[in-house]
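The freezer alarm interrupted the setup, so I double-checked each line after restarting. Inputs confirmed:
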Amino acid sequence: MMKRLIKGGRIIDPSQGVDKTADLLIEDGRVKAIGTDIAADGAEVFDAAGRVVAPGFIDLHVHLREPGQEYKETIATGSAAAVAGGFTAICAMPNTKPVNDNASLTRYIVSKAQEAGLARVYPIGAITRASEGAELAEMADLKAAGAVAVSDDGRPVMNSQVMRHAMEYARDHGLVVVDHCQDTQLSAGGVMNEGKISTLLGLKGISRAAEESHVARDIMLCELTGARVHIAHLSTAGALELVRRAKARGLPVTCEITPHHFALTDAAVVGFDTNTKMNPPLRTEADRAALIEAAREGVVDAIATDHAPHHEDEKMLEYDQAPFGVIGLETALGVSLTILHHTNGIALSRVVEMLTVGPARAFDLAGGGLAVGAVADVTVFDPDREWAVDPQEFRSKSHNTPFGGWRLRGQVVATFVAGNPVFLAQ
Amino acid sequence: MAFNRKDLLGIRELSVEEITTILDTATSFKEINERPIKKVPTLRGKTVINFFFESSTRTRTSFEIAAKRLSADSINISASTSSVTKGETLADTARNLQAMAPDAIVIRHPSPGVPHQLARLIDAAIINGGDGAHEHPTQALLDAFTIREQKGRISGLRVAIIGDIRHSRVARSNTHLLTKLGAQVRIAGPRPLIPPDYESIVEDSSDALMVCDRIEEAIEGADVVMMLRIQRERMSEAFFPSLKEYSIQYGLTLKRLELAAKDAIVMHPGPMNRGVEISSDVADSSRSLILEQVHNGVAVRMAILFLLIGAEGE
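Predicted 3D structure, all chains:
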């Protein structure tokens, strides 16, 4: 019987409203007890004094690139990056090559993740076959094989009737529909936020309307179908307002925001660093401020990284030719704490909520809390430790981060999955 | 000397002093172009590569002549494809150019920012010969040179820039340069061809830059009317209905030109679509400085080459 005692940390578990200094006892991969002065009694002791002990972080939005683009990332390297960033569970988007639109591919991902033995990897299946936006993927089959949600991330379903049917079908099979909201006709050719900076740089813009009109459509379809809809990586003030109103009306809509969208604006594109190119694009200061306020007041369910590895050779291209996307697993906590907590005063427990129980509830995932009997996925972090981001030190195969050289405050100390240490700093 | 840069990437980052230095230097070089023997040894032994990823006759030839009149060796490389379609990264492109040990590289590329990206990787002076819809600094400098020569000043002038602003690097570079030197710039064109927030791209928040709803409003009282080329393929992207309607609504005719100041001059960066954005009677009138712009381009580019790679050790 394996026992582990995480001793003397500040336990922050928003799922139970817990924020206190206590010991956490783990037995057989599950939380056995939370209390003061729990005796070691043969348990392996991890000293967490001065650190925060939180449920393992959950990232709803990761691109692992396997199968098909293993030169960018593999399930093993992506999992290693995840646990180094404090994530004990990650949801893998289906835009692999081929697209994860069938049960055998889903099973392949699950088995590769088990082989890696680090983070829990939850595949997200495609909404439509090959994510081509026409015929529905075999969602029930995908779910039986382990898919936790469906999405055509990166290739939004433009045909509203197809999307409606997808939502109706997904609802009956208990799947959340995750949408990358973007009217791809309105955004055609765009490489950055449309506005003053795109005009200045002569780069083609992606208007806020391209995102917001699609969010509005999805909310209407959510109301029409009753399906659970999760809006991925919201980036504009207007899109947040739409979600806020939908939630106020009781619709089953959830949403996520990314660290890069609340840390950076389109001003970062001046200089043409392709690590500032992602989709949706970095927006304006007003949008960034709205994201931070929405995070504070609770409209945002989850912080997700949209971890999108690309090889250096692919990113070292003309700005308008380079692929969209940046990695984020290993900087998510540092950026979130630096921007949301240290700079904008959002409570530590609220930041932890968006990394744990928030995402767990959005997709009905195990974990996200440390109630007695829950799986013992635990992240221990130092909320104040300063560190400099050196992309060459990442576990990820790729280095395409906009945060290289940044000094961040807040760092992961240890990550446990089912009570076993899968990452220990230094 | 008020010019101490490795590269000329755009107008936006230049100071008024730097711009004035370039224009003043060009004045002294213009005289060389009027001599019977149009050559000086200033850049002997220097190598200038003209690296053009987009077709260009005017700009490339102008740079080539400018280099030759300063006795530099100039080499033209044309590439019809971007590095990505060749399977080469920009870094590889940069390393290859660097290996040839040029002193200056003039680069034209359809993607905004390529000169800036290359400048970080290459020791040679990079001159932006036009990058997508971003900047075309040498065109703006030769336009300013021409205006200054004709009007004796730039400050206080009213300049109308008309046409496809969205896709125009010339409009952006001229907007920066003319407002920096104290002119008032008025923009007009079909609204789909005016990029969002255009009036906010200059630092000066006063009325130095205005976007007008109608071409007449922009031209009224103008000292300079600058027409931009309209590309036919924009029609298929639904930016405006037809060339016929464009010429009626936005073309410069003698009648419209009457709204401008009595001594207004007309400019066009070329190549012109006669009968579309500009009528032939305007283009060929005494008000038109279109060929003078081309003529001055050589002197301005000589000045830029000299300031970037000629000043040291001479």
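Quick read of the result. The CA atoms of residues 168 and 225 of chain A lie 5 Å apart.
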